[in-house]
Amino acid sequence: MINIAKVYDVLAKEFEKYSAPVVDLVEAQTKDPFKILLATILSARTKDTTTSEVVNAMFEYIHTPEDLAKYTREEIEEMIYPVGFFRNKAKSLHKLPEVLKNKFNDRVPEEIDELLELPGVGRKTANLVRTIAFRKPAICVDVHVHRISNRLGYVQTKTPLETEMKLREILPEKYWLNYNSYLVAFGQNHCTPRNPKCSTCPIYDQCERVGVETKWIDK
DNA sequence: AAAACGGGGGC
DNA sequence: GCCCCAGTTTT
User: Fold this and answer.
1) C-alpha distances in Å from residue A129, one per residue of A92, A177, A192
2) Domain A4-18+139-218 has CATH 3.40.50.2000
3) pLDDT grade, residue A219 (50/70/90)?
4) CB under 7 Å from any atom of strand B: which residues?
5) N or C: lower Cβ tally within 10 Å for chain A?
6) C-alpha–C-alpha distance, residues A151 and A159, integer Å
7) What is the pTM of this model?
8) How many Å apart are A38 CA and B9 C1'?
9) Which strand C bases fall within 7 angstroms of a protein CB?
10) What is the CATH architecture of A31-134?
């Protein structure tokens, strides 16, 4: 049986050796929920260093939804070009001020269901904004959390949403705030998609699936 | 359920 | 050159 508390403690201790990319990125630059929202949307499937450069440049000119609304979709594309999926993200960002204004009175909402109404925001981003901007407990399941939770044997799930719901059941809420960061850092440094570094794994003795074929998870 | 979207950085 | 990146939207 997995001891989640123990795993958490070990990873927490290891954590100083790692970094929590997006959290560090936005917290170093702003506490403004709107800017955090922008940075978080742009960070999807994108290296944090790339996101950081783009976001820094944007924050020179854009501080509010009104500022963002002044730009055309093409101008936004040009602005965010180095991040991946820039056309999709520009489309979302271009529409964002309108939705914030019409539905949320120009404020970034705090509830998951509300955040999900924003363009470019899916479950992972909604949860991430909630934790970073509002310090509310949330579980955001990205590829790392999904993969590792299955590899360790916490869950046996097909979709990230299933993983999120299962973790919501079995993971005590007091761990939610930092758990994602720890698991992501762990996923980048040890429990990698291919060829995980099991020989130097800090929670080797807590893993039920060492050496088990994981292609069914990793895809 | 699957496809489309993507440039940048690491090795 | 190949692999991966704290996914979302559209078919």
Assistant:
1) 16, 12, 25
2) no
3) very low
4) A 45-47, 49-50, 81-88, 158-159
5) N
6) 14
7) 0.88
8) 22
9) 3-9
10) Orthogonal Bundle (1.10)
